[in-house]
Amino acid sequence: MSTTAKLTELGMTLPPVAKPIAAYIPAKRIGNLVITSGQLPMRNGELTAKGRVSIEVTPEAAKEAAALAALNAVAAAADAAGGLDNIASIVRVGVFVSAPPEFHAHSAVANGASEFLQQLFGEAGRHVRAAVGCASLPLNAPVEVEITVEVKA
To answer: Structure pTM?
Structure first.
């Protein structure tokens, strides 16, 4: 089954690539890799959640936001790769979680992105990952996700 068909089976569509909010591009292809800029949990140009995880945003809501940010990252990667079905595998995922110092469940929040990518790409969605806590993120987003993908030859 193609990745596009799998996305449809999941009841989802690939969103338009989010417009950059600063001086960068959404994704860049280098050889057979595409690296995305950090993507936020945006839907129709609006953040779906705002604030720090465990204070203004529950960890469960942040996990869902991470999945949405991962979908936005896939859209950016697919655009640079020439289409969703041109993505061979997910290589690396970076998830930034805005949270106070006493919050330590960054990995559980990041699982929202990882689980979504594995659901969409199957075995090709398994990846290496970094989950990092930070004091704040652009636009007061609770999470930001960046991915590196391998493009089919």
So the answer is: 0.97
